[in-house]
Write a structure and sequence with these properties.
By secondary structure, this protein is mostly helical. It has one domain: Ferritin, core subunit, four-helix bundle (Ferritin, Up-down Bundle). About 75% of the residues lie in helices and about 0% in strands. The protein contains 7 helices and no strands. It is elongated. The N and C termini lie far apart (about 40 Å). The relative contact order is 0.16.
Length: about 180
């Protein structure tokens, strides 16, 4: 895969991954009990919505077309389109999306008896996947501005992971 197609691939994969975190954050804004979780959710929603908008602009500038939906570009997933429907998709689209895309089940999260704990337990591995994706992509990215965004993603999400781990230890004991 050439550098240009690596940048295309990263953007096509990262946007639905961010959409997953944004959907989890939206849920946290209404379901979380702890103000710390709500504040983190606001931060995740703001930063990842902004990053998605920027990646969409760059994609159009660099590749002359809008970002294709995740399903069309990869052939993975089946039931949900990019964006809204993926989190509640039963088995069909869920498997590919669970591994590469969002990695969470919003229905289960929304019904968790201890939402705050479930949110942390799902957001940490979700962020870890995002950090891995951005770290791997940096080495091969052709566009400096995308490399800088990837570095910012790694830094922000790594800090958020550490914060969530501290909260988890403090609130629930060792993970």
């Amino acid at each position: 895969m050439g550098a240009q197609s690596m940048d295309q691939h990263f953007i096509v994969m990262m946007i639905p991954h961010h959409d997953g975190a944004i959907a989890m954050a939206d849920l946290a804004l209404t379901r979380a009990k702890r103000p710390e979780i709500k504040e983190l959710a606001r931060s995740i929603k703001a930063s990842q919505t902004s990053e998605n908008a920027q990646m969409r602009i760059w994609y159009r500038q660099w590749f002359g077309q809008p970002v294709p939906s995740w399903n069309q570009s990869t052939g993975l997933g089946g039931t949900g389109g990019a964006g809204g429907g993926m989190g509640t998709a039963p088995m069909g689209g869920g498997m590919g999306m669970g591994q590469m895309g969002r990695g969470t089940d919003l229905t289960a999260l929304s019904k968790a008896p201890d939402f705050d704990r479930a949110f942390i337990e799902q957001m940490i591995p979700h962020h870890q996947m995002g950090v891995r994706m951005a770290t791997m992509a940096q080495a091969n990215s052709q566009h400096q501005e995308l490399r800088l965004l990837q570095q910012a993603m790694v830094k922000a999400q790594s800090q958020e992971i550490e914060q969530m781990r501290q909260w988890y230890r403090s609130w629930y004991g060792s993970p």
